[in-house]
Amino acid sequence: MNESRYAKASGIVHELLELTVTARAVELAARCGDDSELRQEVDWLLRASEDEALDAVPSLIQAATSEIAAEWRVAAATPNDYQLIRPLGEGGMGVVWLAERAVRGTSQQVALKRLHVGSTTHRQRLLEEQQILARLSHPNIARLLDAGVDRDGVPFLAMEFVDGERIDDWCFQRGLDLPSRLHLFIKTCEAVAYAHQQLIIHRDLKPANVLIDAHGEPKLLDFGIAKLIDAEAAGGTATRIMTPAYASPEQLEGKSLGTTTDVWSLGVLLYELLSGARPLQYFDDVHARALAMLSGTGTTGTEATAVNASATAGALNSLRIPADIDAIVRKALRREPEQRYGSVRELVDDLERFLCARPVLARQGQWSYRAQRFVQRNRWPLAAALGVSLLTAVFTWRTAAAEREARWQAEVANRTTEVLISAFELANPAQSERHDYSAREVLDRARANIGGELADQPKVRARLLEALGKAYQGIKEGDAGAELLESAARLQLDPAVGDALGAARSLRAKATGIIANHGPTLAAEDAARRAFDLVLVHGEDDPLLLAEAYGVLAFALDGVGQEGAAIAAAQSALALREQNHAGPNLLAQSYLDLCSVMTGAGHRGAALDQCERALALIRGNGGRASQPLRTALQELEVALVYNGQYDRGLRVARERIALTAELFGERSSVLAGERLAMTDRLAESGLFAEADQLIALGMPVILERNGARSSQYAQALFHAGWLEFLRGRDTQALPLIRQALEIQESLVEGRDLGMLQVLRTALAQVLIESGQASDEARALLETVISERSQGDANAVALAYARLPLAQWHAARNEAAAALSLLDQVAAVGGSVEQELHARAAATRAQLLRMAGDHAGAAQQAKVAFDLMLADRGSANPRTIRYAVACAAALAAAGDLAEADQLLAEYRPRLEQSFPEDSRYRSGGEP
Amino acid sequence: MVAAAPAELDAATLSPLLYAELKALAARALREERAGHTLQTTALVHEAWLRVADQRQLDPRNRGQFLGLSAQMMRRVLVDHARRRSAAKRPTSDTRVMLSEIQSANDPILAGLDTSTGLITLDGALERLREISPRQVEIIDLKFFAGLELEEIADTIGVARPTVVRDWRMARAWLQRELAHE
Fold first, then answer.
1. Which residue(s) pair with A141 in the sheet?
2. Where in the sequence is the domain holding A123, given as residue range(s)?
3. CA dist A211 to A90, A187, A208, Å?
4. B168, A55: Cβ pair inside 8 Å?
5. What residues of chain B lie within 8 A of the CB of A62, using their CB?
6. In 3D, which of A360, A343, A327, A359 has the Cα closest to residue A189?
């Protein structure tokens, strides 16, 4: 056996190794005899025993522990999950990991920092600060992408991952000359100056925080992070985050800091880049250095290098560091902040003066100086001339490139127009016999045209696909728009087109289109995320673009179970817009977005506040009769309804309709559509007369403007029918709704399912409640349920079709089927109107009554009544109907006193609210 | 403080206690970011000793035996985690750090396996080796999972250093051969 041979052999090896080398051979032969397999095993183990190369712990163990560590370590907060790949290093603020953020199919590498922070009380502050940092958008600053709190409650920051080399290593290892080093340093300074404009101080500038990327561009890391940590630690006694060697005197003293603290650190960095040593490196002891610096006795300036015997090999020879640079460094490293350069800009200006051989301000006052520089500058007029001609060449080239671009743009525009015109020629009576083509037919024709013709012109094709996709989205025609926009985005991402921001635009349009047609679905979220990532990577110069991407993302996340992330995204959009001084309308849009996602998350009160804020902003901006005001009023109306403020909701709706009249005109189809749509809510509040008036105003306009075979007319008929149904006139309601459905069916040929589903459900409900629980009603509902169950089934939409089906079963006394549907309706909870739950309770009451359980029936009837009473008050027609039905149920259960009391209160109201021929007046079921 | 009589070291009682202790310590170490980029099993195992010895009034002379037990439990903690992860795992593309990527040329053990599978496989092999040479397994455990140097291992288990070195190298060679057939 292998095992026993190994055991035996290892015993032998232990003994052999105690012997001298010569004795071993003898003993080996004696112990193994002619067992050649044992002999082989011993030989093998002897070799292994003397092989030091094997002494390391296998990397498997390292890998396993670090991998498992990674898993225990991170489950990042929403909206994104991070997977740790490998540690990048450890700093004062925590361990930094290379991590991957998985975003539905794509992944982005980030530098993930988990912060050493003990207290949890300042977490909110941390998150607020990070929103300010997120606005830093500069090509030479690594972006802050995300921040939050992970599963362990530890705050983390996700920064753009820069795969680069420290600036000092980069300079030394390449032996860069002085101008090259200065150029890199100036770029670094410019990034710092940019951040200072945004009132953000770095506070921990050092070579380790300036990386040179693959393109040779410096990238600043950890901008403002020190402040974040300090803010976090502000309450406690934790030490400030800084690197003493680079920290300014005021930083070491713990005083308040200004932008000049970064000037100091940049001075140290510049000094180090040129000399390979830090200005005060010759003080061994940190405390000594601090003391020297604070007392001003430490020598700054390049002569200190002489004291430092071990300047880095890659440093420039200190003899070659010009006196000007020395002066610049000295000015940056003045002990008193006010004596330093007042801004990073001034430091850069001086360095640029040096590079252009103009007098450096730092040395002003030395009379010989300017003359010296002047001579130097004019020493080689030839070189200067060469420089000028080079500049001219560059300028010419740039101009030419710009012209090419402009010509190309014009060509795209022309080609786009051509294709669209060829599509519209279809609708030109001179060229074709029909002249009533629908928008869809025109678009279909255009789509067919770009299909074949433009394969060799990808840029034009992409532009057209995008335009057409948006047009399709506009007419709400199925998913053709989404498909076109997806093709557009793919093409825009193709190297041949290379328009990443265009792709982001297309994907954003795709996401909004899907949301408009289907509500927030996973497909919408996917498109929004891809758009967002593209903007994140390619749109770094345009924070407002990013804000827009955040906004769309917020909408896409809303309703797919990520309401928290949706709110965070909407807040980020708002923060970006605020920081970048976006106009009031854009800010208002952000408030409205927040309102919408907060509503989705159930924060209805907060949502209403956001809405009011938007409205105040727009009104304050003089937007009396403007489109943004109209949008805000529309949102406010919805928010009010969600908050149960129905009356104010109606007032806002009236204001909006007046505004629409002003904006679009009395005879506009838009106004008519709004008037008709408002009739539902008026009727629900019992304002039947006002609703009638609106129907009378709207219907003729729709007929005139849209014609009898239009979706708009179908909707108008539906509203008219529904109004009749709500006041209990089924015979008037039925033909209207049936006609609406017929028109819509003939128009859409199976597309635009949303409207069809509404009409089918409505027709079925009217049929069932008017006592016609026919096969037709059932078939209508089952079609709707089966369509709504496909793809991302929306439980709320399904509930609206399931409830009438339950009513259908109840009408036929099929209790089991009805109850199972009612349970499904109950499961959607508070995300639907209370009326739905009230109707469900009334249906349960009906089932119990038919089963002879009058007490149970009375109880359920009371539930229905109470729900409506709490939601809409006692004057509401539905409350009144349920009250009367409840009284009947109470009477049947023998509770005559309470029944009489209810009837006494509500019978007169019933007669007041509903016309004489109403089903509800004659004691029909509610 | 009145010292009670040092308790005997009872593996059956201590093992579950240690297991829980090590897991908690590991989780805490991770939370506090003290561990750098590896778990620093050494520190964990030593800290576990301090805590459990204090709680249970263990005889300091039993420390060596205790460390052996801790190392074994540390392995259990890691392997259990690896098992859970393997069970929950989607296809292997999800495994970020593949052993093959970080494998150095002179570390042929378990080449090509991802770390979870590797750890589970290693655990199985060590359990087989226990049948042949429990001492070698103890050495491996102390080195791999308690992070002890060979010299410390010799002190801990009370065996001459050269013997520990030989056992260690032979055991490693055995593992390598054993796992090559997996």
1. A220
2. 73-162
3. 16, 12, 7
4. yes
5. 38, 102
6. A343
Highest averaged pLDDT of the listed ranges A164-173, A220-229, A633-642: A164-173
> How large is the C-alpha radius of gyration of chain B?
17
Distance CA A826, CA A611 (A): 30
> Could A54 and B173 be called an inter-chain contact, meaning their C-beta atoms sit closer than 8 Å?
yes
Counting the structural domains of chain A, the total is 4
Q: How many whole angstroms separate alpha carbon A190 and alpha carbon A89?
A: 26
Using a 10 angstrom Cβ sphere, with 0-12 exposed, 13-18 middle and 19 or more buried, the burial of residue A497 is: buried
Pairing mode, strands A106-114 and A210-212: unpaired
Phi and psi based region of residue A142 (left: phi greater than 0; alpha: psi -120 to 50; beta: remaining): beta
Residue of A nearest to B142 (CA): A57
Q: At what angle do helices A458-474 and A500-518 cross, to 10 degrees?
A: 20
Structure-token pair, residue A492: 């825009």
Q: How many CA atoms lie within 13 A of A471 on its CB side?
A: 17
**Which backbone phi and psi does A19 adopt, to 5 degrees?**
-90, 165
Tokens of A925: 């079921």
User: Is B1 part of a structural domain of the chain?
Assistant: no
Element (H, E) at A101: strand A94-103
Residue-range definition of the domain harbouring residue B174: 11-89+99-180
* Strand partners for A416: none
Q: Is residue B59 part of a domain?
A: yes
Residue B3 belongs to a domain: no
Give the closest residue to A911 by CA, choosing from A886, A873, A881.
A881
B115 touches chain A (CB under 8 A): yes
CB A685 within 8 A of CB A668: no
Is residue A62 within 8 angstroms of chain B, CB to CB? yes
Angle ∠(A741,A744,A748) on CA atoms, nearest 5: 140
Compare CB distances from A73 to B30, B96, B109 and report the shortest one's residue: B30
Preceding peptide of A908 cis, ω within 30°? no
Do B39 and B29 contact (CB within 8 A), yes or no?
yes
Q: Which residues does A577 contact at the CB level (< 8 Å), separation at least 6?
A: A544, A547, A586, A587, A590
Rounded distance, CA A738 to CA A718, Å?
8
Reading chain B (182 residues) residue by residue, the pLDDT tens digits are: 333 344 455 666 677 777 776 666 665 555 444 334 344 566 667 667 666 766 667 776 777 777 788 888 878 877 877 777 666 544 333 333 333 233 333 344 555 566 777 788 888 999 999 989 999 999 998 888 887 888 888 988 888 999 999 999 999 888 888 877 65
Residue among A756, A685, A758 at smallest CA distance from A726 = A685
Contact check, Cβ <8 Å, A53/B172: no
Residues A106 and A213 in one domain: no
- A200 and A144: one domain? no
pLDDT digits (tens, 9 = 90+) for A433-463: 444 455 566 667 677 766 666 667 777 778 7
**pLDDT greater than 70 at residue A266:** yes
Domain count, chain B: 1
Catalytic residue among A146, A168, A204, A262: A204
Tell me the backbone φ, ψ of residue A251, rounded to 5 degrees.
Answer: -70, -45
Residues of B in contact with A59 (CB under 8 A): 99, 102-104, 107
Q: Does B32 reside within a domain? A: yes
Calpha distance A577→A446 (Å, rounded): 37
Q: How many CB pairs under 8 A join A and B?
A: 129
Look up the CATH number of the domain holding residue A110.
Answer: 3.30.200.20
Do A142 and A118 have their domain in common? yes
- Give residue-wise pLDDT tens across range A535-587: 877 776 777 888 888 888 887 776 566 777 788 888 888 888 888 887 887 88
Instruction: DSSP letter for A336, please.
Output: S
Q: What is the pTM for the complete model shown?
A: 0.46
Hey, are the CB atoms on A58 and B78 less than 8 Å from each other? no
